[in-house]
Amino acid sequence: MSPSRTDLPLLWTLRALAALAGAITLLIVAFLILEAWPALQTPGLSHFLTDASWFPASTTPQFNLIPMVAGTLAATLGAMLLATPLGIAAALFSRFYAPPAIASWFRRLLELLAGIPSVVYGFWGLVVLTPLIRQWAPPGQSLLAAILILSLMILPTIALLSETALRSIPRAYLQGAAALGLSRWATIRGVALPAAHCGIMSSILLAAGRAIGETMAVLMVAGNIVKVPDSLFAPVRTLTANIALELGYALDGHRAALFVSGLILLALIVLLVSMSDWIMRDDPGTAPEALTQAQVPQHG
Amino acid sequence: MSENCSPAAAESVSDDPQSQRPWMQREACCATYEPCLQVRDLAIAYAGKPALRNVTFDIPRGCITAIVGPSGCGKSSFLSSLNRLSDLTDGCRVSGSVRIEGQEIVGAEIDLIALRRQVGMIFQKPNPFPLSIRENLTFPLKHHGMSDRQAREAAVENVLRRVGLWEEVKDRLDAPALGLSGGQQQRLCLARALVLSPKVLLLDEPCSALDPLASAVVEDLIASLRGDYTVVIVTHNLAQARRIADNVAMFWLVDGAGTVVEHGRAASVFEAPANPITAAYIAGARG
Amino acid sequence: MADRIATVFMWGVALLISAVFAWIVGDLLLQGLPHLSWGFLSATPTDAGRAGGILPILVSTLLILAVCMVVAIPLGLGTAVLLSEFGRRNPLFGRLVRYSLDVLAGVPSIVFGLFGNAFFSLYLGMGFSILSGGLTLACMVLPLLIRSSETALRAVPDDYRRAAAALGLPVFATLWRILLPAATPGLIAGLVLGIGRALAETAALLFTSGYVDRMPGSLLDSGRSLSIHIYDLAMNVPGGESNAYASAVVLIMLLLIINALTFRAADRWLHQRITAV
Description:
The complex is a heterotrimer of chains A (300), B (287) and C (277). Chain A is an all-alpha fold and 300 residues long. Chain A has a single domain, classed as Orthogonal Bundle (MetI-like fold). Chain A has helices spanning 8-44, 47-50, 66-97, 100-115, 118-136, 143-167, 171-179, 184-195, 197-213, 216-221, 239-246, 252-281, 288-293; strands spanning 54-55, 62-63. Chain A has a two-stranded antiparallel ribbon. In chain A, a hairpin with a 6-residue loop joins strand 1 and strand 2 (62-63). The two termini of chain A are 42 Å apart. Residues 284-300 of chain A have low confidence and may be disordered. Chains in contact: A-B, A-C, B-C.
């Protein structure tokens, strides 16, 4: 709109608000760096990879973050391996297999799953899942428990976003496949999945970001032992859980070290978000506008 | 000289709700053929790509001037440059000169609010606000400084009578305007423009989204504005232009940009077009 | 053959997901509902939360939520209005703000916790307090609020903007009387998402609003949110399980109630606006 002179105060107020909102990101980065600075100078970044172990509070502090990085990567990768096929299958089910009524119920169920707070997932994992795993292979609180809970949490993200991507495939593509007499599975494999692959990839990356950043649920089920895991049943500690566990009593260099791990997390997330943005930008068919427009159910 | 013609709508309406001005006077108003808008060498470009250029003609006061021509030759762009609504469009650049009653409105620092109060506009698709019928009219009045509630109520009744809507809606003024039919909505939009007592009315294909019956009602209404307002109407419907226009400007695409190829009295443009393009267009549309 | 296997697989996955969902919800309700009573909601916790109720925790939760929304709503709405209504007057500024918000939307909640602890609690001297926690949450829900509000405003037909501009109405009046009311259902939907996210959040509050389970006396007191209560009972209090179950049920019910109420309100509002009386 073209503002008139009487609107100028409003315009400047809005600009100030927007500048404040936009500055929060800068403020976060600035304060993370500020707090991490002592640790980045001494011992320096390389110590986080080469020190013998993680004893940040001792008189000769050791800052090896490798076990936590390994824990985060193992839990995230495991959850991705499990949740990606299931999430895509759930999206395909809702788009191509379920009758309309069931599909809409199923979507609502996925939305509810996505809305359950992570602390509730963690609690359920702690009291229901870990005892089951303990019966099988103690101690129960383990990488496996973390993977299972994380899968459960990111599955709705993958399913809902992939479903939206599948929904925005031009109907003509699917009709073309039907005209060729292709079976449902052949249509999905040959037409639907390739046509929606950008949107699906992007949903997977966003889910990976969520898995890396997840704190509470993993904290409650993973056991939190600082050690590179040697099996699925070994307890692990992730970067996020490490911060949550230790910030309460961390001082000086220890505190700075935790802020370094915060910076590492932030960098990982920015990388994933940018990759997801980049994938979507190359794909006009499933651009966000197209995603929001394609809300009308069109079955078959 | 023709101050009596340049309209103070509210006054004329309150004087005479049915607006039964004698034909003679209307004819007389238009017959004087005094320019109200003077368009000189107007050009419009979108993101550097010219859409309209070399547009020069006068729009007479108190007359209905129809802008005709094929799609995509800049008719709507032209119209939206007359109240500077073109400012809302990204990368739209207007150059040249348009004077309304001698006042330059292109470029420079002009008071947009005052300009748009003088120049009302009706769009192709009826667009009443999602407010009640009454609020659709009082909302603009309040913001143009009519603070007396009773004066506002009187203006609402006057203007609704003027567009023939009063009897239809007087019992449900507080009902949502979006509950009206398409034709009623368009008449409400016309009332909303008239309530500010503009000098000029811009109509952008005001009947094309309406069914034939509603379209006829709105068309009659527009014809009745002659003499009170300077009306500029874009229309695709040549029969409509022939029925209501006093004056016609023919737009055509020349070298990739629209321009005026012929303008003048409706009778002469329709019956004896000077330009072969106009002749062919009118003949084609007729056949 | 492959077609048949695929069909069985898809239905199998859907059944599996539904079954796990039923398992989680069923377990929570089965274990939680028996401990839920009026007394539980209206009593203070005793014995580290093993016994007693959750009244101060509910109060703290709502106060944190209130601080969060009081800050986030004007900031979010203002930014959304600027981006949607004035965005093209200054494309570079708009793009910078939007990019910054995209990044902000991806920041993990524990990193918000780090920031809130360093900035609000220590640098601004708010300590572990409801104020600090609420402000941290405000930063967190801001991108969500802005994006949903911007989408809602952009969905308002341009017809209204052109009509208002053609009548020479000031932008502020147009926003206030026409655009914001027309966008209200979408704005409310975004608000509900934001409230849901704030209510569910735990990690960002651990080191900003703190653990104290007493009734807060002011916004500068530490206050324990419902989500932290669940975490603490589950992890740090042996024998706190049954009250943790009950608290989890309360948290989920709160989320569902807010969801249902606001959507009902938006529906009714929309109905009144559009249809003829």
